[in-house]
Amino acid sequence: MTKPGAQTEDGAELAGSLLKRIHRAYDGLPGGERKVADAILSAPHEMAVWSASELAAQAGVSNATVSRIVQRLGYRNFESARLDARKLRETGSPLFMTEETEPGQEGRPFARLIRAEADLIEATLARVDPGVLRDAAGALRRARRVRVLGFRNSRFLADYLTAQLAQIRPDVAPLLLDGQTAAEGVAGLGPEDVAVIVGLRRRPARFSRLVQAVAARGARVLLVCDASLRGAPAHAAWTFTCAVETRTPRDSYAGALALMRLLATECAAALGEAGLLHLNAVETLREDLDELELSDPAS
């Protein structure tokens, strides 16, 4: 008979992250081991840095109790469990990130935030190769169609770029419409198209497979990602890497947004007169349709 949460012969019961294993085993844990579980669940971000002795002290139990629970959860030893926590931290899981606070300077309560956001913008744009940027902008200008895709927190960045490019050239749209499957959107792509795919960390499963499928249709992929992405850049014609990690549980997209603006600006420059003509047509239609509020010069 297997203990609650212990590994079965085929290993199926213990598949999953550290927290998932704890929750699955929790009801069957003895008192001391439950204290260890509570300590981890109360501060999961600390698990990536705690030693076994520190965790034992935090839970008020012995080192032997810590050893018993990590083995019950299916890990060979404490270090294996800690490595699992570190992997989740590296992928940007908010539960495994440390919330750090720092008093602001007098009169500048947000000085640290301003500095951090500026650093991320600088770190992102410093990685941009001007030649690669010009080549990508030229491809965006020449493409028959431009399709843009982003999931989860990358979605608003994709939507922003779609809106910017649609003002300066025709046939720019999301790759997937609401309610569509990925196959339905990808199937329409061809060699004359460019697909801009935004994939910052905490991406959905099979993200790299989707990038590969887009490239297999012959479309050229412009990939915007962070440094944690593996595999997908091999299928992209251009890859731009953004700095997103902060010292808090929330990633910042200030650098990524600046990159999107830079891409749109460079594309407009590449389009030249054609881009201005398209923008003029858009603005004329906006006026005809009375779409935007007008400011009162007298106010």
Instruction: Indicate the low-confidence ranges by residue numbers.
Output: 1-15
Which sheet architecture does the biggest sheet show?
5 strands, parallel
Widest sheet: strand ordering: 2-1-3-4-5
Strand content: 5-15%
Shape: elongated
CATH topological fold name of the largest domain: Rossmann fold
Question: What are its keywords?
Answer:
Arc Repressor Mutant, subunit A, elongated, 5-stranded parallel β-sheet, 5 strands, 12 helices, 2 domains, disordered N terminus, Rossmann fold, alpha/beta, 299 residues, 47% helix
Overview of this structure, please?
By secondary structure, this protein is an alpha/beta fold. The protein folds into 2 domains: 12-96, Arc Repressor Mutant, subunit A (Orthogonal Bundle), CATH 1.10.10.10; 111-287, Rossmann fold, CATH 3.40.50.10490. Helices cover 47% and strands 9% of the residues. It has helices at residues 18-25, 31-42, 52-59, 63-72, 78-90, 111-126, 130-142, 155-166, 182-186, 207-216, 254-271, 273-289; strands spanning 146-150, 172-174, 194-199, 220-226, 238-242. Mean pLDDT is 80; it is low at 1-15.
Topology:
Blueprint: H1 18-25, H2 31-42, H3 52-59, H4 63-72, H5 78-90, H6 111-126, H7 130-142, E1 146-150, H8 155-166, E2 172-174, H9 182-186, E3 194-199, H10 207-216, E4 220-226, E5 238-242, H11 254-271, H12 273-289
Parallel strand pairs: 1-2, 1-3, 3-4, 4-5
Helix pairs in contact: 2-3, 2-4, 3-4, 6-11, 7-11, 8-11, 11-12
